[in-house]
């Protein structure tokens, strides 16, 4: 079944997106930890303190990104790609006149089975509008009327 194949491909692409982000953040954390350990007090004390403070800020930012990645993994774990429904839900694919959407995580534009899809979060503005919609229903997004052609 082509619909299931599309869902599987999009789901795998979302998992790869999250894994790549996790790898990047882990590399940043490792790099910053090494930099913090190698920072030695020099005669220019203020420069040293400023460098340490900057590294600490980077570490805090990276840990916030780790939390976001954890949330994305939790969302992905809730998706059952085998569940087919004519009502848009987490894990649905929505085909509209304007674009195709995969209700999952915000992972941007993805290509599956030769077509482009936008992986969007159910908490995103357009995700909220599409959630629980059916075929032939319409939404208004950014002043544009968008007709839903198919949901699976």
Q: Which value, in Å, is the CA radius of gyration? A: 21 Å
Structural class call reads alpha+beta
Number of strands: 6
Instruction: Compute the separation of the termini in Å.
Output: 12 Å
Biggest sheet, spatial arrangement of strands: 3-4-2-1-6-5
Domain count, please report it: 2
Tally of helical segments: 3
Stretches where pLDDT falls below 50 for ≥5 residues?
none
Largest sheet: 6 strands, mixed
**How much of the residues is beta strand, in percent?**
15-25%
* Succession of helices and strands: HHEEEEHEE
What characteristic shape results from the CA principal axes?
elongated
Helicity range of the residues? 40-55%
Instruction: Return the average pLDDT rounded to an integer.
Output: 93
In brief, what are we looking at here?
The protein has 152 residues and is of the alpha+beta class.
Topology:
Layout: H1 2-38, H2 45-78, E1 93-96, E2 100-104, E3 108-112, E4 115-121, H3 125-130, E5 138-141, E6 144-151
Parallel strand pairs: 2-4
Antiparallel strand pairs: 1-2, 1-6, 3-4, 5-6
Helix pairs in contact: 1-2
